[in-house]
Fold each of these.
Amino acid sequence: MAKQISRRQKVVNTTLKLIAGGGFHASPMSEVANLSKVAVGTIYHHFPSKEALFDAVHLETCTEMAKICNETYSNKVLKPVSKLSVIWIELFGYLSSEPQRFHALIQYRNTPPSMDNAEFEGALTAVKEIVKEGQKQGKFSKINVNILFEMWISSVLSAVRMKVVQKRKMSSNEIKELANQAVALVKK
C-alpha cells in the first residue's frame, strides 16, 4: 500500500514546483491550493502566510543539507581538506538531484527579506567548523571564515546551476575536480 502524503506535504511539494516554474512571487496561494487539491484555508492552517510557506520549503531543504554536512563533519578519520571535498560532492549531488529545491534555494537566497539566510548558514555550520579546524592546522587561509564559506558554497551552487539550468553533462572526474578547486579556494 502506497504511503499517503499529508496535505501539508502536498502543499510544500506544489510550492516547490511553482517556485521552480515561475518563482515564489508569481505563485498565488489560490494556485498552490488548486494544484495541491486542498482548500486555501488548509494552507493557512499549516502556514500563517505565503512567506511562512516559503520559509518552510527553505527550512526543509536546509535540514537535508545539514544532514549531509553533519554526517561528514562527524567523521573523525577525514582531514578538513577531505571533509570539504566530500561535502561539496554530496551537496552537489543532492541539489542536482532535486532541481526544484535548488531553484527554491537560489530564489530564497536572493529574496531581500531573507538575505540573512540564517537557516541556510545554520545548516552549513559544519562547513564553517571544518574551515576553522583547517585554519588552526595551518591548512586554510586565515581570511574571515564567512568569506571563505561564501566562496566555497558559491562554487557548489554555480556547478549545480550549470548542471540543472544549463543542462551541462558532468563526469564524476569533472565533479571531483570542481570539488578540489573549491577546496583550493580556501587553502593557504
Amino acid sequence: MFDIAVEKEGPLHLFDLTLKGESIVYNGILGITDIAYEMLKAKEDSILVQKERNHLKSLNNDQQRAMYLRGRFVCKMSVANYICVKDLLSIKIRYGVFNQPLLDAPISVSISHSKDFAACIVFPDELPMRLDLEMIHRNAEELIGSQQTGEEI
C-alpha cells in the first residue's frame, strides 16, 4: 500500500512515498517536472557537474539536451529531498552496465522522460523499482485500457 504526500515547488512536484509491508516500512520520493529547458539551461552550472555538462554538450539537438537536463534536475532534486542535502552538485550520478543511473549511496533511482516531462523515483536499494513515464493521448485510452489489468488501471 502506498501513502503519498504532495509537495509542490513551482514546476517541480515531489511526492513522499511510503510502502508498508507486514513488518517493514519503506520510504521513497517521486519527483515530476515540466520545467522549461531555458530555465534549466540558465542554472545548468548549479545542477550539473563538469562530466554531465560535457555529456549535455555532446547531445545532438535541443530536444535531447532538454530531456537530459530535466532528467538530471528532477533526479537530483528528488535525491536531495530524500537525503536532506541542498547542494545538487554534491549528488553524483554515474552509469551502470545497462546504462542505468547509479548513486554512491545505499539508495537507487529510476529516471524517465516523455516529451516535456521528466520523472524520477528514489528508493532504498532493498526495494527495487523502475519508472516509465508516458504521455497518454485521449484517443489512445481504449487501446491502453485493453493492455492493462483492472489492478493496473
